[in-house]
Q: What sequence folds into this?
């Protein structure tokens, strides 16, 4: 039975309280402010008058398409590269260097990737301002995160499982696919979801690769320009006089839910 | 006593990790259907020598081996030897029980499934036979689909033995299989080893000299990577020829 906490323990408990309370308060505050603005029409209708009335359907659909395109690239490439790094790459200086590089790349500000995406996908490859350019840019931004998460998850699987598998006559690939990967699955998924949620909330990357502020129709192909939630929020909140306040709050309210 | 034919024969085996010479010029022949114990202090190269027999050392960076390791008169380090086939023939049980995070059934069926066996009926038979051989069937037959982790340490180790047996090995390597277990569980493993040698050749690394004396037919004493003495277990423990062996088994060393 614990009688009382020592001073350092109380301090740590206090930090836990803050760490839980502050983000929770922020989310709650947004929901309360958003309540007035959210309606079925807001979610399912086309925007009118630069979004001052009407709904945000194209922004929701645009963001979903964006995530779909990003996932299509980042999941196979990122998970594959992570598996290779963790299970098959020789343990030498080059591999170590590569791993360090990936961790650093994960910290590069998204606007830098955005700029690259604009120069490479939009201009050089001629994809133009489109869902394709933006999805690929977001995929590049999130790749280091997914590779690192996959690698970490596989490193967490005990060596003894692999040894047991190999000793039973498994090839290295079989040991990975039948034992290591199933054990690491939840870690890989969590990492991928975190990366995708970062992609979903990113404004800088899509700002210059294909997002439009006001486009009252749904994207028809990956070559279309599109609306997206974070960019719509950014413009609505900062660049648009006359935007009803509850509509602004409703946007992150929808993003959060 | 009729000598069994030799199942494993090592000729001048040396193993290096980088510049480290871990096993030095070991030559020894292990008889079929017997239990051979490898004893020696920590760091004497026992496990390394054991793991060379199913080529588990291949996965260690900088490992180099010289000499000949013959199983059934075939050099397992010759070019063109299929390591996967070798490991089906030479099974291994590790120091700590390491069942997969799968059900008891799936643990035992794992090896046969790797080989492409899909028939439920055949798998059922293999699983039951392997668990019976490992003296675990009666304890788990009603809960084959619970996780292997739900078993006690001793049961987990017998599950790992059943898992190895399911592949149909001819040689079973055991790397201190009872060192993480309590005395009762250890006794069960030892009983089991005596049953297994009817059909298999068993090589066991052990720190526990009583265990070596109780179960093994032959004993090899390793010191600093060298094979100091190899003989019938009774002789090693009653009339060792080498002073170092005598010192070790009488507890003056290690």
A:
């Amino acid at each position: 039975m614990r009688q009382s906490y020592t001073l350092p323990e109380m301090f740590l408990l206090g930090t836990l309280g803050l760490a839980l309370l502050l983000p929770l308060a922020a989310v709650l505050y947004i929901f309360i402010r958003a309540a007035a603005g959210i309606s079925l029409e807001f979610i399912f209708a086309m925007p009118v008058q630069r979004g001052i009335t009407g709904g945000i359907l194209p922004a929701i659909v645009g963001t979903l398409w964006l995530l779909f395109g990003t996932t299509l690239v980042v999941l196979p490439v990122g998970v594959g590269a992570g598996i290779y790094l963790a299970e098959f790459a020789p343990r030498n200086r080059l591999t170590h260097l590569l791993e360090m590089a990936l961790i650093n790349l994960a910290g590069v500000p998204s606007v830098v990737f955005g700029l690259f995406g604009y120069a490479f996908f939009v201009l050089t490859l001629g994809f133009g301002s489109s869902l394709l350019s933006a999805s690929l840019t977001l995929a590049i931004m999130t790749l280091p995160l997914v590779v690192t998460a996959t690698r970490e998850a596989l490193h967490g699987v005990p060596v003894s499982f692999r040894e047991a598998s190999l000793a039973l006559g498994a090839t290295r690939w079989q040991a990975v696919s039948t034992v290591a990967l199933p054990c690491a699955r939840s870690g890989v998924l969590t990492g991928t979801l975190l990366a995708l949620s970062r992609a979903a909330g990113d404004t800088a990357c899509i700002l210059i690769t294909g997002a439009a502020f006001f486009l009252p129709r749904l994207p028809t192909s990956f070559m279309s320009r599109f609306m997206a939630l974070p960019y719509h929020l950014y413009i609505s909140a900062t660049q648009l006089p006359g935007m009803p306040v509850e509509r602004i709050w409703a946007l992150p309210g929808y993003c959060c839910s | 006593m009729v000598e069994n034919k030799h199942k494993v024969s090592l000729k001048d085996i040396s193993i290096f990790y980088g510049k480290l010479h871990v096993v030095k010029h070991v030559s020894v022949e292990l008889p079929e259907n017997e239990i051979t114990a490898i004893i020696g202090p920590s760091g004497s190269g026992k496990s390394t020598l054991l793991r060379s027999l199913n080529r588990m050392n291949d996965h260690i960076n900088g490992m180099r081996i010289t000499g000949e390791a013959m199983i059934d008169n075939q050099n397992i380090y010759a070019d063109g030897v299929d390591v996967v086939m070798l490991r089906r023939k030479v099974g291994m049980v590790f120091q700590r029980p390491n069942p997969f995070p799968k059900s008891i059934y799936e643990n035992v069926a794992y090896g046969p499934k790797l080989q492409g066996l899909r028939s439920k009926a055949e798998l059922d038979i293999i699983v039951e036979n392997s668990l019976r051989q490992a003296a675990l069937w009666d304890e788990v037959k009603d809960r084959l689909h619970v996780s292997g982790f739900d078993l006690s340490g001793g049961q987990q180790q017998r599950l790992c033995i059943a898992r190895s047996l399911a592949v149909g090995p001819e040689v079973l390597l055991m790397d201190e299989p009872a060192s993480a277990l309590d005395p009762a569980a250890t006794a069960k493993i030892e009983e089991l080893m005596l049953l297994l040698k009817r059909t298999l050749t068993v090589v066991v690394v052990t720190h526990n000299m009583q265990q070596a004396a109780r179960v093994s037919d032959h004993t090899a004493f390793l010191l600093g990577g060298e094979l100091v003495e190899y003989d019938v277990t009774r002789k090693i423990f009653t009339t060792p020829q080498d002073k170092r062996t005598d010192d070790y088994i009488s507890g003056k060393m290690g």
